[in-house]
Amino acid sequence: MLEDSMEYIIDKDNKNITIKDSYKYADLETQVATIKIFLTSYEWFNARSLKSYVREWRAHNRLYKLGLFKSHTKDVDLNVNESIFRRILYFFLGF
């Protein structure tokens, strides 16, 4: 179940889901549950794994908590077509 207060934008054309103020949802269980709902609801979203999306979300939260790029890291854009470079960064930052 999605958190009642969670705001998100689904952009099917660009294959992206934006979670507004994603830093507010720091616990792994909420992140996994949310992404699982998107994975089962939108076939096009299955281009990446659950773990990949979770690492991206956690990387954004970590950067936000450190005060880095706050205007860009307060929300997370879960792009299906994320670059390999960024996905590598998320792998290390979101571990």
Explain what this protein looks like in three dimensions.
It is a single chain. α2 crosses α4 (84-93). The chain is of the alpha+beta class and 95 residues long. The longest helix has 16 residues, at 50-65. It is built from 4 helices and 3 strands. A 3-stranded antiparallel β-sheet has the order 1-2-3. Helices cover 46% and strands 13% of the residues. It has one domain. The mean pLDDT is 92.
Rg over C-alpha atoms, rounded to the nearest angstrom? 12 Å
Widest sheet: strand ordering: 1-2-3
Q: Which shape, going by the Cα principal axes?
A: globular
Please count the beta strands (DSSP E, at least 2 residues each).
3
Describe what is shown at a glance.
This protein has about 100 residues and is an alpha+beta fold.
Task: Give the secondary structure arrangement, pairings included.
Layout: E1 8-11, E2 16-19, H1 28-41, H2 50-65, H3 70-73, E3 76-79, H4 84-93
Antiparallel strand pairs: 1-2, 2-3
Features:
95 residues, alpha+beta, three-stranded antiparallel β-sheet, 3 strands, single chain
